[in-house]
Amino acid sequence: MFPQEIIRQKRDKKTLTADEIRFFIKGVADASIADCQASALTMAIFLNGLNKAETVALTLAMRDSGDVLKWHLNGPVIDKHSTGGVGDKVSLMLAPILAVCGGYVPMIAGKGLGHTGGTIDKLDSIKGYQTLADNKTFQKTVKEVGCAIVGQTANLAPADKKLYALRDVCGTVESIPLITASILSKKLAAGLEYLVMDLKCGKGAFMPDLKHAKALAKTIEETANDAGTKTTALITDMNEVLGNSVGNAIEVREALAYLKGETPEHRLDEVTRSLAVNLLVSAKLYKTKNEAAANVEKAIKSGAALEKFAQMVRALGGASDFIEKPEKYLPQAKIVRPVFAKKEGFVEEMDIREIGMLLVGLKGGRTHPDQKLDYATGLSAFCHIGDKLDAKTPLAFVHAQTEEDFTKTASALQKLIKVGSQKRQSKVILS
Ligand code: URA
Q1: Domain ranges of the chain
Q2: φ, ψ dihedrals at 425, nearest 5°
Q3: Which of 37, 84, 88, 362 could disulfide-pair with 116, CB 3.0 to 4.6 Å?
Q4: What's the pLDDT at 153?
């Protein structure tokens, strides 16, 4: 087999065999296929697509390009994956809730990408927490605590790591078969039995509209189910901040408040509970949605999910009194100050992509892959669509390290949020 022949076939809209796909992906992983050839194939797939069998073959070949974890546990191995958003800290709360409800959650999460935040960056803001835990510690934590959130190790779906980096710089990210294979190869390599997908839809997501989000949901569900991991997908809104905060340590504080049973922002609560209930029923831990919902409520209200989070932090290198004294272990910015809208009125819409980029401007997100982050910076008490703003209610509080950063962020924020006379309603679960 020759790589250029495989590229030509896809260029000419022909169907690839599973053997051809396996040959190509093996070559990507062992570097016998050049980056230019791998990039060319991703562009041919971007333009001409893959059918269902090809998408399954690509996903399995990428899964098998590295280690595939095997679990022998007393309950189902379950997880959630989100396609990424602004203020999305759901994983921090969901993993311990699911563990309390009887699931085992080996969550392999990512760093921030572009305007979207990453769960690993949030956890890295906790002093001592090892997101680069070795496989042995990871597996021990999942077994003993019930959940562990760590970063992607070098040998988990390495073909995806390579292809993702090439797609990022070759304009081939937004392709349904490529996104499907990329996400699922990592999830299948983690040895999952059940998965729930949180597909973000809107101006701050890869899928800008419901039609494309539904098509991606269908492909992911079909491919994962064919590959042996039972998967369901929810489509959720990403046109505004999820929860009240954006920023690494600031989002950990919001997640802790949630697990402590403090009144949450209602959209964040709805997404967290809906994902939990869907997955717990699909994994047959509960028979009905009502039963699952009651147990999710109990996991939060009893403090059991908070205790699970504490156990996970401890097992992965964090302090044993993290929950009691979070401020000892989370960084705080020098300046924390409110920013007000220029006029009174209702929040009508916001430029969520650029709001995500404000965190990059505050050095809480990356402009370069090796950049060290400032985990303390970001935004809190963030307004939502439909909120009434006045001289007492700000757009948000900016957490910055310098006056210059504060001023720049504050004036950008005033331009990115449209305030007017219409009180809009926003929906969070779209499908
Ligand atoms: N997340 C991934 O892991 N891969 C994609 O292609 C898109 C989002």
Answers
A1: 3-63, 78-326, 331-420
A2: -105, 140
A3: 84
A4: 81
Q: Report the topology of domain 3-63.
A: 1.20.970
Q: Could you report the per-residue pLDDT of 388-428, keeping only the tens digit for each?
A: 999 999 999 999 999 999 999 999 999 999 999 999 998 99
For residue 142, the CA-to-ligand 1 centroid distance in Å is 24
Ligand 1 centroid, distance to 197 Cα (angstroms): 12
Q: Is the pLDDT of residue 370 over 90?
A: no
State if residue 183 touches ligand 1 by the CB under 6 angstroms criterion. yes
Question: Any bridge partners for residue 106, and if so which?
Answer: 148
CA of 294 to the centre of ligand 1 (A): 33
pLDDT, residue 154, reads 76
Q: 331-420, what's its fold?
A: Aldehyde Oxidoreductase; domain 3 (3.90.1170)
Pocket test for ligand 1, best of 58, 161, 178, 183 (most atoms within 8 A of CB): 183
Q: What does the mean pLDDT of the chain come to?
A: 96
pLDDT number for residue 185: 96
83 ligand 1 Cβ < 6 A: yes
Could you tell me the distance, in angstroms and rounded to a whole number, from the CA of residue 183 to the centre of ligand 1?
A: 5
SS3 of residue 417 by DSSP: strand
In whole angstroms, give the CA distance from residue 40 to residue 166. Answer: 10
Q: Is the pLDDT of residue 155 over 90?
A: no
CA 170 to chain centre: 22
**Measured from the CB, is residue 172 less than 6 Å from ligand 1?**
no
If one looks up domain 78-326 in CATH, what number appears? 3.40.1030.10
What residues act catalytically?
79-82, 119, 167, 182, 186-187
The confidence score (pLDDT) of residue 41 equals: 98
Residue 305 token pair: 């999910």
* Per-position DSSP letters for 196-208, written without gaps between them: EEEEEESTTSSB-
What is the rounded CA–CA span in Å between residue 162 and residue 160? 5
Predicted confidence at residue 136, as pLDDT, reads 92
Nearest CA to ligand 1 atom 6: 179
